[in-house]
Design brief:
- The chain is mainly α and 74 residues long.
- The protein has a domain at 32-73.
- It is 72% helix and 0% strand.
- The chain contains 2 helices and no strands.
- The protein has helices at 17-49, 54-73.
- Helix 1 packs antiparallel against helix 2 (54-73).
- It is elongated, with a radius of gyration of 22 Å.
């Protein structure tokens, strides 16, 4: 039959909550800025391919969106 433990869930070493929170905040920052980079790239590609801005215009749009996003997401 299955064992029924009634003791504490942490039986090993104590958890380092400060390090856990630091890792979680770094993960959130990576997800946030990674999503921003993908959105900026897609908008730059849209401007370059479909709006007639060309290669350099697409890069300019991508950089503007990326820089504006960094400023707004801080």
């Amino acid at each position: 039959m299955a064992e029924h433990n009634t003791g504490p869930a942490e039986v090993g070493a104590q958890m380092d909550y400060k390090e856990h929170e630091h890792t979680y905040s770094m993960f959130l920052a990576a997800a946030k800025f990674g999503s921003l980079a993908i959105v900026a790239l897609l908008l730059g590609m849209t401007a370059g391919f479909f709006a007639g801005a060309g290669f350099l215009g697409g890069i300019v749009v991508m950089l503007i969106v990326f820089i504006a996003g960094i400023v707004l997401l801080r």
